């Protein structure tokens, strides 16, 4: 069966793809940039059953490149990280382009992962999800809608936000929406539902709510998370925090962006519980309770086996859609800080140290200075250092790495290239490469800054003393670290 999969480089899609291939299907992955696809994660036998097509659902003409027969299409696209004002209109247009694409095919089913939306008055986020359902129905292809509650899994937005709150704050002064109810669902169960409805005719033109076995308030979710982590936490609810203040609270405490935080806060005013749960009469899914879902997530983290993370979505407007175009580091009109350090240590060990930079390990020198820079970035509306990294040992193009984005992670060439996503009056790249020059191993470390206007040039000279302090020691310590 030929299956069109959107979002194959996203949080859910990365996990669904191998399941579909293992079930014997041929999967057509629709991506905006082929270079973001996880080619290195799959062997040749796997890739024989995958076709990667480059197209943009926001650009209807680009979809003409899809000329293969399609039996089933998974629609797992959302625009929550776009601006708070514009995401709804963008979602409608994207869904309409997708529906128009399928009108000209012999597709027999569309599967859409939506959000539970049973209240009469909905947030813009949840209302947009419902509107997308109507747009997809206009294709004339039988539609199966799975409306999910909060998804819990290693790397999921909900899991990481809860983790930030619980692990950072012994005492939380929280908004009244902590009393709202939800029905958290393990990512493993989400994949089972997405797999189970595939070409199941009983699910055609049906809408189902999917959630786990526990109905909890957000406060109970936080306290149970603390119990799993063996932490004592206290939560004080106050009625005075407006949605805007609540969003700012999430922004400064967790790794979410303000836009995503605002959309989530607006939705948290509603109870997100299963009302239409008769899908369990059709599919026999062994649902994990909330605590078991948390334990499974942490087992993946402890095994350093986090497949995907919501943080890997590009959040820098300057990078637009094809962020990997920034691999070509400019040379003209730029400032550079270049360090070359010869070494006799094992090149593979040094490469491993490069690959483990950032996150909990830090930046090998002056971590407190990096943290201060992260706080300044956060105050300026940037991402700060909150995002950390998906895995402590593995890097892929597209991964977020503190306030950097991984553009290139070539283990064979021993080259790592990062692009800055902090607030800057210009653009910045940081590159690490191990070379062999005249029989001698050399660590090559290069910072590149392309200033924007006079302020950009002033910024470079203002931070130059810190560069002279940090960059030489960082290069040396990358080599020395055991």
Question: What would you say this structure looks like, in words?
Answer:
Mean pLDDT is 83; it is low at 314-321. With 482 residues, this protein is of the alpha/beta class. A hairpin with a 4-residue loop joins strand 16 (404-410) and strand 17 (415-420). The strands form five sheets. Strands 3-2-1-4-5-6-11 form a seven-stranded parallel sheet, sandwiched between helices. Strands 14-19-18-17-16-15 form a six-stranded antiparallel sheet, with helices on one face. The chain is built from 13 helices and 19 strands.
Shape: globular
Uncertain runs:
314-321
Mean pLDDT over all positions = 83
Q: What does the largest sheet look like?
A: 7 strands, parallel
**How far apart are the first and last residues' alpha carbons, in Å?**
50 Å
Judged by helices, strands and strand pairing, the structural class is alpha/beta
| Percent of residues in helices | 25-40%
Measured on Cα atoms, how large is the radius of gyration?
23 Å
Number of helices: 13
| Major sheet strand order | 3-2-1-4-5-6-11
* Structure summary, number of beta strands: 19
- Beta-strand percentage range: 15-25%
